[in-house]
Design brief:
Layout: E1 16-17, E2 39-40, E3 50-55, H1 58-66, E4 75-78, E5 85-88, H2 90-94, H3 103-109, E6 114-116, H4 120-135, E7 141-145, E8 148-152, H5 157-160, H6 164-178, E9 183-188, H7 191-198, E10 206-208, H8 214-219, H9 231-239, H10 245-249, H11 253-260, H12 262-271, E11 287-298, H13 301-322, E12 324-335, E13 340-351, H14 354-366, E14 374-386, H15 400-417, H16 431-434
Parallel strand pairs: 4-6, 9-10
Antiparallel strand pairs: 1-2, 3-8, 3-9, 4-5, 7-8, 11-14, 12-13, 12-14
Helix pairs in contact: 11-12, 13-14
């Protein structure tokens, strides 16, 4: 990806230009070559190698790339009035729109916003393009989601002829030019602070947190910066008078563990910038699932079953495409008062078949259709493995092989003519409800 060049010998405090990658000779506010103010400078700039890369407002950025008319408009990616915001562009965020916000609140905050339902197939495709570019930098890429990952760039300087900081800057430029979206990157000596750094100066950010400054920097941050400290646990800490990380730094490890158990050990280490986790390449997914939020609450099996069938087919298609199978089927339901129900059943062997996922999901659903109204339903599989031993012949259910063969024939027709080319009796004639808009999946 890069032409070889000698490793930088200039003062890291002078750094380089993020737009043209020219090394800087002094502390001028603009690049000596192109005049850009986007300069990367830091005392440890050329010695750090753990990076976190995060695509900026990913879904919204992809949609704006594909429709230039949306460029200067507030854009929300979400699923109808009863759904939630999957993501929002930065213009919409200025108006107070945030991810996971109920759609009706988002539209109250930004009524002029353009709303587009998620197109997960497109986002997955673009995410894979970005991932491939990451893997051209280093084999040590640890994906966290469709649009973010950790990278360990140690030892790659000889390959690229540049230190990690310059490799990251070049990568960001390449993504912008070749794929048409932007990314932000954080660079540090550990995963925790690399991820923290990537949140600075979004969008198009490149931020650095060095080892020498870590303890002092963290001391001035709220405890919620630490991974695992959400609203509930932050409230526990606040009851003990702890709001800032600096207060945690004054407490001994034994005291923190006495108060907060294993979480206390994490607080001790991360509050001091101590994170020994390494970057693991290509972490496997733990589950494959699909879900949707309804425009109106549903209670009857007649309404829920067609949707369950369509979601089961979506999960099955993803399993088959990835060459994996799952042994545990998980049903997810959310009531009209936002209470979550999850039910699961372990199968005798892994499956990737829509029919088997659906039939198991139906058995779980039967016990829940007691008049309760639901706003969301989801189905998925966990305990994943490769599909080599999936769905062996069933000696008890002699029709299972015929159903598997019929499903294979349906898959072939859908691959050729589209996913609605063939439908089962569960979904036929019920397309609006049985095939809800794409929604954010696990």
């Amino acid at each position: 990806m890069f032409a070889a060049m000698p490793a930088p010998v200039n003062d890291p405090n002078h750094g380089f230009c993020r737009d043209c990658l020219t090394l800087q000779r002094d502390l001028s506010k603009r690049c000596v070559q192109c005049g850009s103010p986007r300069l990367a400078r830091h005392p440890e700039l050329y010695s750090l190698h753990i990076a976190h890369i995060d695509c900026d407002a990913f879904y919204a950025s992809v949609e704006k790339r594909d429709n230039p008319d949306l460029k200067d408009k507030p854009l929300i990616i979400g699923g109808g009035k009863r759904g939630v915001v999957s993501t929002a562009c930065y213009i919409a965020r200025i108006h107070g729109v945030r991810s996971a916000m109920p759609m009706f609140k988002a539209l109250e905050a930004c009524p002029q916003a353009v709303v587009i339902p998620p197109n997960m197939e497109k986002y997955v495709r673009v995410g894979r393009e970005v991932r491939a570019m990451m893997q051209a930098l280093t084999p040590l890429v640890e994906p966290l989601s469709i649009d973010e990952a950790f990278l360990d760039l140690a030892g790659t300087e000889r390959l690229h002829g540049r230190p990690p900081a310059l490799v990251l800057a070049q990568f960001a430029l390449d993504v912008e030019r070749q794929i048409g979206i932007t990314v932000s990157a954080g660079l540090s000596y550990c995963k925790f602070l690399a991820k923290v750094a990537s949140d600075f100066r979004k969008p198009r950010g490149l931020s650095v947190i060095g080892e020498a400054e870590a303890v002092g920097f963290l001391a001035e941050q709220p405890v919620t910066l630490i991974w695992g400290v959400g609203k509930a646990f932050a409230a526990v800490l606040e009851r003990d008078g702890i709001r800032m990380i600096g207060q945690l730094q004054k407490l001994e490890r034994n005291e923190l563990m006495r108060r907060y158990g294993t979480m206390g050990d994490r607080l001790f280490h991360l509050s001091r910038g101590m994170d020994q986790r390494v970057v693991h390449a290509d972490q496997e997914a733990k589950s494959v699932s699909a879900e949707t939020t309804f425009d109106t609450d549903l209670a009857s099996a007649a309404d829920l079953v067609p949707i369950l069938r369509a979601l089961s087919e979506k999960v099955s298609a993803r399993l088959k495409k990835a060459g994996i199978a799952g042994r545990t089927v998980v049903l997810k339901l959310k009531t009209q008062d936002f209470k979550l129900r999850t039910r699961n059943r372990q199968l005798s062997d892994p499956t990737r078949l829509a029919d088997r996922i659906f039939q198991t999901g139906m058995q779980l659903l039967e016990k829940e259709t007691d008049g309760t109204k639901f706003r969301l339903i989801g189905i998925g599989v966990s305990d994943l493995s490769d599909d080599a031993r999936a769905d062996p012949p069933d000696l008890v259910d002699t029709q299972s092989r015929k159903r598997a063969m019929a499903e294979g024939a349906m898959d072939a027709l859908r691959d050729k003519f589209g996913r609605h080319a063939v439908e089962t009796g569960y979904t036929f004639g019920k397309r609006r409800n049985a095939h809800p808009p794409e929604h954010l999946d696990d």
